[in-house]
Write a structure and sequence with these properties.
The complex is a heterodimer of chains A (about 725) and B (about 170).
Chain A lengths: L1 E6 L7 H4 L14 H5 L15 E7 L5 E7 L1 H4 L4 E5 L23 E2 L5 E7 L2 H10 L1 E6 L13 E2 L5 E3 L2 H7 L2 E9 L2 E2 L7 E7 L2 E6 L4 H12 L6 E4 L15 H13 L3 E4 L2 H7 L2 E2 L2 E9 L5 E12 L21 E10 L13 H19 L3 H7 L17 H12 L12 E2 L2 E13 L5 E7 L5 E4 L9 H13 L6 E4 L16 H24 L8 E2 L2 E2 L5 H5 L4 E9 L2 H4 L3 E13 L5 E11 L6 H20 L30 E6 L23 H13 L5 E2 L3 H7 L3
Chain B lengths: L3 E4 L2 E4 L8 H8 L18 E4 L2 E4 L12 E3 L1 H4 L7 H9 L8 H16 L18 H7 L10 H12 L5
Parallel strand pairs in B: 1-5
Antiparallel strand pairs in B: 1-2, 3-4, 3-5
The chains are: A alpha+beta (about 725), B alpha+beta (about 170).
């Protein structure tokens, strides 16, 4: 039986606070954690499948044009080689998040260097890898593909454009104004598990073990790519070795494995190499961003301008939503916002953790630091003065807004010294030492979701949904929600995820999984409570459940009388999405050292204070935050995709040349979880936390670099060469 | 015993194909998928195993080069029923998120603590001689070959620090 709830109004009942089990929000260890630390958790490529052949992708070595011939005989006589697949249904790009249809297909048409064009299948991985390198391919190249985002006429994204009041006039009349241009380089998700799939047929039924974030969309994408009915496909992603946006949509190896399995009548495994993952999945676009801030003598914004240029391949709908939080974070009645996308032939641009704010916020918060200095106002105080009462572009209230609390609690916990700030006040040997801060903001997303909860006659519970746990803590928080509602220790709740046979939801992405699927579990549990309450003669509101018993001591097993009780919860966001501006907020504080002679920056400590609604598990939520802060360090100092200007190919396509933070780059990190309940965000009063932790953190580091050594830099990442070039004498 | 590699105490025949890396041998030939392939180029540390007591990237060495060697993988350090001290500490401190780098982190940390005990200095050591204090900076330096993209470093260091101080035993 399905219970549907469409949320048109905020739910401020905070029912979960009144439950008696007392497990929700507690810092419980992950329920799947023992499997992960003992190496017994199976990831997509690790399922033992009989008679499985191995496939290796072959990728293009030209930028634009077509494949004129593939000489199969060049490899078919090699040991173990079974077949070459160049089916026109092969996908040449990964699907964008929530695409719900096949990505670009037709491997003979080439749009970027590194695009998959074929798959070689052999008995063993070593044989397939060798043969893939030897496959003879001929091309007809079309010269002159545009590669430089600054050298083409970009397309304006009309839905992002805001012209409000007169910004030019506000800038001219401002007591203090800032007009700066920032650049950010492209980023890679670089999830630790390479994109992998095992496809096997049983009659006309296809089962694919894959590493994916959003199965309900992915199954539609795969069905469309293969021209199949969804009902004949089963996707399984029980463990996903990181996603960060790169596994939102199906990627090339999923379709290739399915087509190969069809062609040779055997199961086929395809694992992308690390270099292929870098070059064929998704890049975060580079950005160029102009920030204009106009303020009165008190530092109150009168004008706000944010214009950004990003890039993508022709035919891609995605444009890095740089301005996402700029629309509402600060006031200023005169506003100009514009996003443009340049069509170029670099690999596909798409979602990488916190698309938009991950690069928009570091630019905006850098500009705010410049304004604070010009206005002679403490940077924390400047932000406090500019928190708007409501969305400054639309007549919408905020669902809940904890920026001020985050700024204040963060400043106190960090030991922020308020007042006028001057750079170069502290030096130890070769090192300048300084501090900086920035606000955090990330829009709240939520989506329709279903989950089934079964209260078993033995007094345990089962939660089933196609939701994925990509390291986010989903297994654990769903067990906590069900445990809290049904009066069970979470150890008594079995959670089964990552299988399209279960009720479907939006999956993991845009930080929406916990609030969406968590609400579906909550709704299912509430329906079960109503049934139980009826058996006791009490109302659902009166029913107290704890440790498998009612308040009067009656056990769940006796209430159930030998029968399982199952309910499917179906959550749908209604008018709450239109009636409120909902966002997570936060504040970052950083202390850095900058070497006067080498320009090297080391982060000595970092703190983040975040408000994101109800905390479902303090341990996993904190981990999400420190993960985001760690990414902030990468954005600030090291991460940059580099493209060859001659053919647009991604040059630093591995983990030796694309520098993600490593252990020694990450200092002690402190997280303050600010208490919040956001009833307009979800029925469980929760918002997302997977991305907020990196939305602005890089600016706290950049601003600390300036405070330390006086180098004001407008280009991320702030590598030693850039720091040295900006270092005053 | 010749023509075999001993893995977690069990002897296994060497693969026929000399191109098989130790990593693929473990994951594919003998089905020990706890050891992870993250990059296949010695850049991420997910494939770290312990060979004759020393931690190595198993993707950077061929199985055929390990005739007679003794290999310990994550499965050999502990099991769900009997996890090692580091495995328990990683669980308690949430020293992982997606879990894919975790076996490599734990194998690496297990051998790393032995290296400190044996007096091997690192870039973070105050002196090249004598006792090495297992400071956080020492742990961070020595673990920097193990990438965690989820960014669990702060928790990983806390877990290792606790075990180094004698906790979870």
């Amino acid at each position: 039986m399905t219970v549907h709830f469409k949320q048109d109004k905020p739910d401020n009942s905070n029912r979960l606070d009144g439950m008696k089990q007392g497990v929700l929000g507690k810092p419980l260890p992950r329920i799947e954690g023992l499997a992960k630390v003992t190496g017994t958790a199976p990831y997509a490529a690790e399922y033992p499948v009989e008679n499985c052949a191995e496939g290796v992708l072959v990728t293009a070595t030209i930028t634009r044009g077509k494949v004129t011939s593939i000489d199969r005989t060049s490899v078919l006589s090699m040991p173990g080689v079974i077949a070459v697949v160049d089916d026109e249904k092969l996908c040449t790009r990964a699907a964008q998040g929530t695409a719900n249809e096949a990505p670009m297909q037709g491997p003979a048409q080439i749009c970027y260097w590194g695009q998959p064009i074929a798959l070689v299948i052999a008995e063993t991985f070593e044989q397939a890898r060798d043969a893939a390198k030897h496959l003879t391919v001929e091309y007809l190249e079309v010269d002159g593909a545009p590669l430089d985002p600054g050298a083409v006429d970009p397309e304006e994204q009309d839905d992002e454009t805001v012209h409000q009041g007169d910004l030019a006039n506000a800038m001219a009349e401002a007591a203090h104004s800032v007009d700066v241009t920032y650049t950010t380089k492209g980023h890679a998700s670089a999830a630790m598990e390479p994109h992998s799939a095992i496809a096997q047929w049983d009659g006309n039924k296809l089962t694919v073990h894959a590493s994916l974030q959003m199965l309900n969309y992915n199954i539609a994408e795969l069905a469309d790519a293969l021209d199949m009915e969804e009902d004949n496909i089963r996707l399984i992603s029980r463990f996903v070795g990181g996603g960060f946006g790169s596994k939102l949509g199906i990627s090339e190896e999923v379709v290739a494995a399915a087509l190969a399995a069809t062609q040779i009548g055997r199961p086929v495994r395809v694992v992308q190499s690390r270099q292929q993952v870098f070059q064929t999945v998704m890049r975060r676009s580079e950005t160029t961003q102009r920030l204009r801030l106009a303020a009165d003598s008190n530092g109150k914004l009168t004008g706000f301008g944010h214009e950004a240029l990003v890039s993508n391949l022709p035919g891609e709908s995605f444009a890095e939503p740089v301005l996402q939080s700029s629309h509402f974070l600060y006031g200023g009645e005169n506003r100009e916002l514009m996003l443009k996308v340049a069509r170029i032939h670099r690999m596909t641009a798409g979602s990488v953790r916190a698309p938009g704010e991950a690069v928009g916020m570091p630019a905006l918060e850098g500009a705010m630091d410049v304004l604070a200095e010009k206005a002679g106002i403490d940077p924390v105080e400047l932000r406090l003065r500019n928190i708007p009462e409501k969305n400054p572009e639309e007549d919408l209230p905020f669902s809940s807004h904890k920026l001020a609390e985050c700024l204040k609690q963060g400043a106190e916990a960090f030991g922020w010294e308020c007042g006028l700030r001057k750079p170069r006040q502290r030096r130890e040997g070769e090192w300048w030492i300084g501090t900086g801060m920035a606000s955090a903001a990330r829009v709240h997303n939520i989506a329709e979701a279903k989950a089934r909860v079964t209260l078993k006659s033995d007094g345990t519970a089962l939660v089933e949904t196609d939701m994925t746990d990509i390291g986010t803590g989903t297994y654990t928080i769903l067990a906590q929600i069900a445990g809290e509602m049904l009066g069970l220790d979470p150890e008594q709740v079995l959670v089964e995820l990552g299988d399209t046979r279960h009720p479907r939801g939006p999956g993991s992405g845009g930080s929406w999984g916990a609030a969406s699927t968590g609400s579906a579990v909550y709704i299912a549990c509430k329906a079960i409570r109503e049934e139980l309450a009826a058996k006791t003669g009490a109302s659902e509101e009166e029913l107290e459940l704890r440790e498998g018993k009612t308040a009067t001591g009656e056990t769940l097993t006796s209430l159930l009388d030998g029968k399982d009780l199952a309910r499917e919860g179906h959550y749908e966001p209604g008018e709450i999405e239109d009636d409120y501006t909902a966002s997570g907020f936060g504040a970052f504080f950083a202390e850095v050292r900058v070497n006067h002679y080498t320009g090297e920056t080391r982060v000595d400590r970092m703190l983040g204070a975040f408000g994101f609604g109800r905390v479902l598990n303090a341990k996993t939520a904190r981990s999400q935050c420190i993960g985001g802060i760690t990414w902030s360090i990468g954005v600030a100092l090291t991460e940059a995709l580099e493209f060859d200007p001659r053919d647009g190919h991604l040059v630093n396509c591995d983990l030796a040349e694309y520098h993600v933070p490593v252990h020694r780059d990450v200092p002690d990190v402190e997280v303050v979880l600010v208490e919040e309940r956001d009833g307009a965000a979800s029925p469980i009063q929760a918002k997302g936390i997977g991305e907020l932790g990196m939305c602005g953190g890089a600016a706290a580091i950049a601003n600390a670099i300036y405070n330390a050594c006086g180098a004001r830099i407008y280009d991320y990442p702030m590598t030693p060469d850039r720091v040295l070039a900006a270092m005053p004498d | 015993m010749s023509d075999t590699i001993t893995v977690n105490g069990t002897a296994n025949p060497l693969p026929d194909d000399p191109r098989v890396s130790l990593l693929d041998f473990l994951r594919h030939d003998i089905g020990l998928t706890g050891t992870k392939k993250g990059c296949d180029h010695g850049q991420c540390g997910a494939c770290t195993v312990i060979v004759n007591g020393i931690r190595i990237n198993s993707c950077l060495t061929l199985a055929a080069m390990h005739e007679g060697d003794s290999v310990t993988t994550i499965e050999g350090l502990g099991t769900p029923d009997e996890p090692s001290a580091l495995q328990r500490a990683f669980l308690e401190h949430d020293g992982f998120q997606c879990g894919y780098c975790t076996p490599g982190q734990i194998c690496s940390a297990t051998a790393m603590l032995e290296e400190i005990a044996a007096g091997w200095p690192s870039d973070a050591s105050e002196s090249l001689e004598g006792h090495i204090v297992t400071s956080r900076e020492e742990i961070r330096e020595r673990m920097s070959g193990n990438i965690c993209r989820c960014g669990a470093y702060a928790n990983i260091v806390a877990a290792i620090e606790e075990v180094a101080a004698g906790g979870q035993s």
